[in-house]
Amino acid sequence: MSVRHWLDIDRERLFRLVLLGIVVVAIAWASVNLLDSPRPWFDEALYLQSARMLAEQGKYALPIAPHETVPLSFITVGFPLLLPIAFVFRIFGTSFFAARVVMLGFLGVCIALAALWSRRRYGRWAGVWTALLFATFSPLYGNGKNVLGEVPGLVFTFAASIALLHIERGKRGAKIFGVFGFLLGLAAVTKPAFLPLLPAATLAAWIGYRRGIKPLAKEWLAFAAAFLLVFGHWILSQFGGAFSGVLGHYANPYGLANVADIIWKNLVGFFQDPTPLHFLGALLFVCFAFWKRGFKRLGLSELFLLVFIFLTWIAYFRTLGWYRYFFLAHVIALAMLPGAVLYLVRRFLGWKSKLVFAVLPLFLLANAYALYKDPFPLYGTDWRALETYVQTLPDDEPVLFANVPEGLFFYRGSNATQYLKVTEALTIHGVGLETLQNATSSRMIVSEGLSDFVPASMYVFEKRFGSVFVWKRRQAVLN
User: Which residue intervals define the domain Glycosyltransferase RgtA/B/C/D-like in the entry (predicted)?
Assistant: First the structure.
């Protein structure tokens, strides 16, 4: 019996089997050099420290000195990422490996949910193509293996989009609205970069109301209660109830003084490099297909995601210009691309149809080529020697970690102080430690990028691990 004569349930089983195979292969590939590519770095280490503090002491805080912590108001991930990692730390022990395994889980679920949304909105072939494009997309591994908020936030975003798709197709009741509110809340608070989901959801709700989707009072109440439960917990746990600085941080996360110059530089650079051009190509096909279909046939979940894409893209221009700042828009555009292309294939005839369909293999080849050229981005093993070294330090050895949060995460002693230059405008340190010049009580200074500030009259260089330097207090000073 040919595939065309299969029952629908058989085709669905085949789709799910193919999707499972793609997810398994993606996770297997991500497991290669799991800890070394990308190597641990500044932001990730801050989140790891926060998760360990949550697992060991049940507090949303960051350690900066013995018996001294600071709140997480400057940390750009929320409890939807920290809680799962803390839970794994509590059960299996605190380790870098355990945290990265959690991220493998998020990565696999992200691919699966994106494909399921695409399948339910556009059909099985679109779902398979979405999974293939995700599984070959190199930045998904670069950002997804790191303990960062992007991929977990995408997981909740696609899950919320599926719930919204159910609502727009007629499913009603307090349960589905509560689920949507809960998932939308989790996505929005995973990282401030997801806050544009809120105006996107508001616009989708207004359009839906105009189209006749008018929730009952109990449905609105279920949505609001679930959303506020999540959002309120985030405000209380991370900001102590004071939300005033969050939007300011989102508007200018690096405290840049010359925002206008940065915006112009990013605008010019956006049309010169392969990665942003790849994103623009995908977005162009998506928007062209929506234009051909007409606004009235645009689904609420599509509108929800498309508005988020454009808001994220606009927000990118006021950052330092790293591509991971439009990564979220890029990934969602790829999720929508197969549905757009397959619609255009059905819309055109003859050679035009074949030419349009060729877009998907071309994007797949481009993804595969980029993955082949740089299979293990940000690869590095120097952190392993650093981990071994700091774990051999005596428990009572006073150590100062200056801009090396991964060093403090690996450290197993109880006498460490931390000095963090988060941005040009924000420095985090313990009481009494305004600069490294005041670090005279530390026997060791483990420093990255701040070596010029280490008082040479008191400390002598001892070891180097890549860009991390270790300084030891001079014997004369000790005596």
Answer: 85-234
Query: 324 with 446, same domain?
Result: no
pLDDT digits (tens, 9 = 90+) for 255-310: 555 667 777 777 777 777 889 999 999 999 999 999 999 988 899 999 999 999 99
SS3 annotation, the chain: CCHHHCCHHHHHHHHHHHHHHHHHHHHHHHHCCCCCCCCCCHHHHHHHHHHHHHHHHCCCCEEEECCEEECCCCCCCCHHHHHHHHHHHHHHCCCHHHHHHHHHHHHHHHHHHHHHHHHHHHCHHHHHHHHHHHHCCHHHHHHHCCCCCHHHHHHHHHHHHHHHHHHHCCCCCHHHHHHHHHHHHHHHHHCHHHCCHHHHHHHHHHHHHHCCCCCCHHHHHHHHHHHHHHHHHHHHHHHCCCCHHHHHHHHCCCCCCCHHHHHHHHHHHCCCCHHHHHHHHHHHHHHHHHHHHCHHHCCHHHHHHHHHHHHHHHHHCCCCCCHHHCHHHHHHHHHHHHHHHHHHHHHCCCHHHHHHHCHHHHHHHHHHHHHHHCCCCCCCCHHHHHHHHHHCCCCCCCEEEECCHHHHHHCCCCCEEEEEEEECCEEEECCCCCCHHHCCCCCEEEEECCHHHCCCCCEEEEEEECCEEEEEECHHHHC
- For the chain, what is the domain count? 2
What pLDDT is recorded for position 242? 58
User: Of 355, 373, 391, which residue constitutes the final position of a domain?
Assistant: 373
Residues 187-222 pLDDT 10s: 999 999 999 999 999 999 999 999 999 999 999 999
Residues 138 and 24 in one domain: yes
Domain closes at, from 328, 355, 373: 373
Question: Per the domain annotation, does 479 fall within a domain?
Answer: no
